[in-house]
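Morning run. Coffee first, then this:
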Amino acid sequence: MRLADFYLADPRLVLVPIEHLTPSGTSRAFAASVVAQRGWSAERIVLFDAGFARYWARSEALARRTRTWPAPRLRHVAVVADPLAVRPFVQLLNSSAWMLYDCDLDPDLSHPELVAYLLVVGDRMALSGEVATAPLHAAAYWFERSPVERANFSAAAARSPRPDAAALRALAAALDWLPGLHHETLRPPASSTAQRTIPGTGLIVPRSLEAAPPALVGECAAAARGALATFHSAWRRPDRAAVTALVDRLAAVAPRLLVTAQRGRIVWDPAVPTRTGALVRTLREADGVAVTAIDEDLRLIDERSRAFHAALVEPDALPTADAAIAQSGYSYLHRTRRLIAYNLHEPGMERLHGPTLPYARAMLAARTVHEWAHLAVEAGWVPLVVGARELADRAAAFAVEVDAAVATAPAAIRALTAADVAQLTQGGESLGRVLARIVLDRVPDYRANLVGRRFLDEAEREAYVRHNVRSLRHEYPPARLWPMLARYLYEYQYLRFSDVEDARTYFLRSTWFDRDFLETGVLDNARFDRLAACVAALCDGYAVDASRFVSER
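And here it is:
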């Protein structure tokens, strides 16, 4: 499979990928591909590029002036053809993708001002996980928009048939008062009298406007509820025949898996395959299309599990799972049964309602294989191949680079991270040594990937990589910059399993790494490359023992 096929593999959407985006829009190569294969017009490409360029330039300008505005970063853009085909507001590829609709790029309906705003508010939704508050929290975007720009946005909002178009129209009406808000750095109030602030945004609400923001949030919440209700009602058709077919197949075939429900309760067990009552009760109100998707998911888990075990010389030598293993995800290894479990109530998945999400089945395959591969690692089948002394030397080389980076970091960075560094090094080791150990603690995951790639097709590998290479800002406070660096350098190695040609640019521009580490002077380009090479060398210290496998998929 070519990467171009991955971008267009799901008929429900076009994925404009990170590696084909720049601050001015999409690449000419991708534009030509989507014109030829999906019938996009030249006008649609121009509209997309104009909107993306405005988003980037305006977000860049705001981020340079205030810490409360997120800097732009490259994310995939998933353009959905049929609004009823994909659940609204979903964060595809682990929050690494915006979601637009075909109508947003229709030159007869839309406008670059609408596209730019949708990308801006999409950033806010990805940061907070909230839909209804995002338009209010992005209010600073409108401070410097001209009357013509606002009018163009409002006209496009009035024409838009998006599922949540009511929110756009509510925002258009709010443009009469939104620019009247203050901001702690962009537009400080003239008076020091008590005014309400909106935490995390820098926004300050004058007393004269106190009622307006909650009203806007309420209208946006109602629009979101309406969009979700429309989507769910379109698929709300229980199918008892599909349920019967599913449970009958499970009873007859007894695949190697568990089906679980809330709190991990097992509702179907291959040890008693004809005991299907709990599963039938769980599926009673499921949408018919969801039951079909569940059946396909379970077939995939069984297929990949059987293929994995068939490829092992000694499948019975796999160890039991660690008791602390996570019991959640697309699929997971049950901690006591040494079987892959599939939770019908997995948070965020909505597996009982509507069609499966784009890329979910590819991720299900990747996760299933990855879970089995971890047992292969624990069995010792991805051993150290360079010798303990050599690995220690490689870890020491990494530590030297880290310690040099810390010593030459800007004074403000060293002050910001001093307390965390003191805590990490209280045992007497240098920070570089500590971070080297952190990386090595994560290498078993990389070793599992070495096994897993033997059993995954190209689309599954790409979905897995794009799901896992992401921004870590939300997981590490600024004071923990150095541990975040170690994890970034490790996760950068995942791009070795992708067909992305320029992995370095992909990583730097899609995670905020360039802004957090290069632009701040924490690292220069040469040191980043040396650090990345050191971590690659640590990963390369391990290899799959081919004698443990009788075949490859």
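The CA atoms of residues 321 and 336 lie 7 Å apart. Good start to the day.
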